[in-house]
Design a protein that fits this description.
Blueprint lengths: L1 H4 L1 E5 H4 L11 E8 L2 E4 L4 E4 L3 E5 L6 E5 L4 E7 L1 H7 L3 H13 L2 E3 L2 H18 L7 H27 L4 H16 L6 H7 L4 H12 L3 H18 L5 H7 L5 H12 L3 H6 L1
Antiparallel strand pairs: 1-7, 2-5, 2-7, 3-4, 3-6, 5-8
Amino acid sequence: MEKRYGCNLLNTAVDGRMPSEFTDEYHVHILVRRGEMEFFDGKNLFTSHKDDLVIWQMSNRISRVSYSADFEADFLIVDSQFLLHYNPEMIWATKCFIFIRLNPSFHLDDESLQLIDTDFRLFRFRLEQTDETFKREALGRVMQIFLYDMWTVYRHGLSSMETSDNAARIFLRFLTLVQERVRENREPAYYADQLCITPKYLSQVCREVTNLPASEWITYYAAFELVSLLNDTSKTLTEISELMNFSNISYFSRYVKKVLGKSPSEYRQQ
């Protein structure tokens, strides 16, 4: 079911599955209902309790996970392509990515808990619908609501994060540039030059903040642009190739195949 629809909502007690089973293939969003859970993210050991929202992004190095005997949680698993396709906004998504990287376990106050709990209930309702006609699309819209609510929950931490960490500031400046110029340039050295730093230092900053190199972030933004353009069927593939500043249509097709796993025509047919 998870691969078919792009996401699934499970409960540890009802489904007999645990969140740590899915970290290699999915982004995992855990709402702790009772008990506690410990985990290590590669830098710090965290303990999560009732009403904590825990998010394990696929790029996290989650290990040493343990659960108390009375642990129970609802957890949403999301395929990376599904998340990319239905991500409604990139700047907030990027800021939230960094915040979650630094704060993978976050305690929800009553108002925030109500927001996230409502979204989880809506996911469950949509997943249980038997009519398949627009099921994935409907789940995609629920995903967008969930992301907006999650960004709302994290908004205070996000506002202070920009000035609290030098590496995070450089990383955010880098991503702002990538968002503005990824259609014209997809080389890390170009962005390092714009930031007046070396490509090596840019890669060091990206890995320090996210465990990912600069090139992967450029590819992520390029994929976001490609999905948006390919979904616009009023544009021909040649026009999209030119908008993305490819030298020829063959190079464009190879790049799309590498980034999205399908050729441009295959993506549109799907």
